[in-house]
Amino acid sequence: MPAPPPEDNRHPVFRLVEIMAQLRASEGGCPWDVEQTFATIAPYTIEEAYEVADAIERGDLGDLKDELGDLLLQVVFHARMAEEQGAFDFADVARAINDKMVRRHPHVFGDVTHKDVAEQTRAWEAIKAGERAAKRAHGTASLLDGVPTGLPALTRALKLSQRAARVGFVWPSAAEVLAKLREEVAELEAEIAAGDVEKAREELGDVLFVCANLARELDVEPEAALRTTNAKFVRRFNYIEAELAARGSSPEKSDLAQMDALWDAAKAAERAR
Question: Quick check: 144 and 164 in contact, CB under 8 A?
């Protein structure tokens, strides 16, 4: 048997930075890692963030540890590519977030005090607004700048509406948002009836954007709400499959009426718990 590798006493993060440098080395590195760019790695970064969220949803701390490691690798990967271009390195990334956290928490690292969480949140938003204003002074111009286009569309819609709400561009109440939602649904129905798929697609987008505004008004995270509904759908559809299998059948061999009845049975079973 080969001898085990010698124990490495360096800090694990430093070791990870070294591993990435070796993977990206033009000689002796990994061909796949070497050919990657910020653009090609970005989808993996997003995927790893979702896998972190999934581990949290499942309450699996062992899996969470692994997924956080995968996400950290993505940070190190991007930092390494930037270092190769002479832009910044991993230490600069850490330094930037350290500075930001200290700057945004004067009540922890300074002598500022807040009477409650609500006041602290307002102060946090004011600090962030000041940071955005400073960026606008250096060339950017919009209140909406800085809301990443790469976010899931529903999350971005929420953040855009939150930014607009800060300057009063917002429906005053949930009731008014619901009224707008009904208006948008009616417009969607009209385009569907007219058979105009492209306009229906646009109206559907309007419906979803208003739903994001409703989520903001209710202080609900829309992605989390939709994930919960997705899980509910999977759970109930699995019930349908299991019940049909017990009868020697399957969804492919059943009609909508049969599956709908089982869906109602799944709902009833959940309520009875």
Answer: yes
Can you tell me the distance from the alpha carbon of 44 to that of 52, in angstroms, rounded to the nearest whole number?
A: 12
Question: Does some domain include residue 228?
Answer: yes
Q: Specify the 3-state DSSP secondary structure of 230.
A: helix
- The reply to whether 125 falls in a domain is no
Where residue 240 sits, what CATH number does that domain have?
Answer: 1.10.287.1080
Tokens of 95: 């330094």
* Cα–Cα distance for residue pair 159/72, rounded to 1 Å: 25
Question: In sequence order, which residues have a C-beta less than 8 Å from that of residue 137 and are 6 or more positions away?
Answer: none
Q: pTM of the full predicted structure?
A: 0.66
Q: Are residues 253 and 159 in the same domain?
A: yes
Do 229 and 256 contact (CB within 8 A), yes or no?
no
CA 35/CA 99 separation, integer angstroms: 32
Distances (CA, A) of 110 to 4, 100, 126: 49, 13, 16
Give the span between the Cα atoms of 106 and 87, in whole angstroms.
29
Q: pLDDT digit string (tens) for 56-97?
A: 988 999 999 999 999 999 999 999 999 999 999 999 999 999
SS3 40: helix
Structure tokens at 107: 């009540």
User: 3-state SS of the chain: helix, strand, coil percent to 5?
Assistant: 75, 0, 25
> Structural domain of residue 212, as residue ranges?
153-272
Question: Does residue 120 fall inside a structural domain?
Answer: no
| Domain total in the chain | 2
Q: Is residue 3 part of a domain?
A: no
